[in-house]
Write a structure and sequence with these properties.
Layout lengths: L1 H28 L9 H23 L4 H41 L16 H13 L1 H13 L4 E8 L11 E5 L10 H13 L4 E5 L14 H4 L8 E4 L15 H17 L3 E2 L3 E7 L2 E7 L15 H4 L9 E4 L4 H10 L5 E4 L9 E2 L4 E2 L11 E5 L2 E5 L17 E8 L11
Parallel strand pairs: 1-14, 2-3, 3-4, 4-5, 7-8, 8-9, 9-13
Antiparallel strand pairs: 2-14, 6-7, 10-11, 12-13
Helix pairs in contact: 1-2, 1-3, 1-4, 2-3, 3-4, 3-5
């Protein structure tokens, strides 16, 4: 991560350098607004640019929490895109005025009465205002994402090919949700609607891959009844995420208070009928055949909050199982530990990234700034015979919206064959 700090630092400096040019154009476009020409306007503009740029640099260099990092990257990205959209309009106007000035210079000897008159409507005014309008599009998009995207649940269907899958499991349906973050919700009816969408898919078993709350167990008080409806014939299996341990709260009254909060979170999983896997495994039986369901506590190579996952315990006594499916909240666990040390794990299921709640995701293309922090950030990945699926989350954190990366309900169809044409994210 530290290797990225230097190029990011120079990018931030470059954007700040452009600000000297941009603020002049902004002031010209808003010249009828008296406040835009006051010192206070300049102080606000420069403070915002410097704080956001420093925030991005510090979050990468200091390895801060994901929510802090993602929030600053999102704001930095949107502001940068706005500025880059505005700059061409300023350049066009400056070039236009330079040409006019050069013509005026060339015609300086022509009598005044013979010089062409200027148009009544200022082209500079039109061009600059058009630039301001174009630059406002990313900000408007963020507002739109807040209003409409945050509860726009999408069901994503994904075939999961597992060559060693027992025949009894061929065609079985697995559902996955992740990152509920109940403390962020403000529309109980919309949340319930997403659960109904999941249940209409009739999955045979379900995975929840961590972050039930933002920090406090009581965040689930108004939502436990809703998520208790997440049921499946073969069971609901869950794991813990980095937010479930209470580490994001610094001022616990005592260690006992923090432990009580954690115990209440564990109890919530139990009360909802979810089988919480804490560095352990279960044998899932269908038609006399078995596969392994493994679950570990949170482990991340990027996040600074804890590496509690124990794959040695989760894989214990599973050598006889033909297929092993792992629940591990943080996708960085896959490349750091699963791939090099546990080739017997066929597929891992994660969440954590939220897809940064901002980006582009279509059938054949996806991009988000979060990819520069997490190489595996959304969808299906494969290396050799092992696979990883990253769900972009059911809830939201920090930015109260989603733009282009919508809340996800994943439905897998397990297939007992290999498909050479399988599309894997890069």
């Amino acid at each position: 991560m530290e290797k990225q700090a230097l190029p990011v630092f120079f990018i931030c400096l470059g954007i700040l350098a452009l600000d000297f040019y941009i603020i002049r154009g902004v002031r010209f476009g808003l010249r009828k607004w008296k406040f835009s020409h006051k010192k206070a306007f300049g102080y606000i503009y420069w403070s915002l640019s410097v704080i956001v740029s420093l925030g991005v640099f510090i979050s990468i260099f200091a390895r801060t929490g994901l929510s802090f990092r993602a929030a600053f990257m999102l704001v930095f990205f949107l502001l940068t895109v706005s500025k880059l959209l505005f700059i061409p309009f300023i350049l066009v106007d400056d070039l236009r005025r330079l040409i006019i000035w050069l013509k005026a210079k060339a015609n300086s000897n022509i009598p005044a009465e013979e010089k062409p008159s200027l148009p009544a409507i200022s082209r500079s005014d039109f061009i600059t205002k058009a630039g301001l309008l174009a630059g406002s599009v990313p900000i408007a998009g963020m507002v739109y994402g807040t209003v409409s995207g945050v509860y726009d649940y999408r069901v994503k269907h994904q075939k999961l090919y597992l060559p060693n899958l027992p025949k009894a499991f061929d065609g079985i349906k697995l559902g996955q949700i992740s990152d509920i973050h109940s403390g962020s919700f403000y529309n109980k009816k919309a949340v319930a609607g997403g659960v109904e969408m999941l249940m209409r898919e009739k999955p045979d078993f379900i995975f929840f891959t961590g972050d039930l709350v933002n920090a406090m167990a009581n965040e689930m008080n108004n939502y436990q009844d809703i998520f208790s409806k997440v049921k499946a014939p073969l069971g609901v299996f869950s794991s813990l995420g980095n937010h479930d341990y209470g580490d994001y709260i610094k001022d616990w009254s005592s260690d006992n208070a923090k432990q009580k909060n954690f115990d209440d979170i564990l109890a919530t999983h139990k009360n909802m009928g979810w089988d919480l896997l804490r560095n352990e495994n279960r044998r899932l039986k269908v038609g006399g055949e078995e596969i392994g369901i493994l679950g570990v506590e949170n482990w991340g190579s990027i996040s600074r909050f804890g590496q509690r996952g124990r794959l040695d315990l989760a894989t214990k006594d599973t050598d006889d199982l033909a297929v092993k499916l792992l629940l591990s909240h943080d996708p960085s666990h896959w490349r750091a530990k699963v791939l090099p040390e546990y080739p017997q794990i066929d597929a891992m299921f994660s969440g954590h990234t939220h897809g940064m709640q901002f980006g582009i995701r279509t059938e054949n293309f996806q991009w988000s700034p979060i990819k520069y922090i997490y190489p595996e950030w959304a969808g299906l990945y494969r290396e050799g015979k092992q696979q990883l699926y990253v769900n972009v989350g059911y809830g939201f954190l920090g930015y109260p919206g989603r733009l282009g990366i919508y809340p996800e309900i994943t439905i897998f169809e397990l297939k007992a064959s290999a498909d050479p044409s399988l599309s894997i994210n890069s």
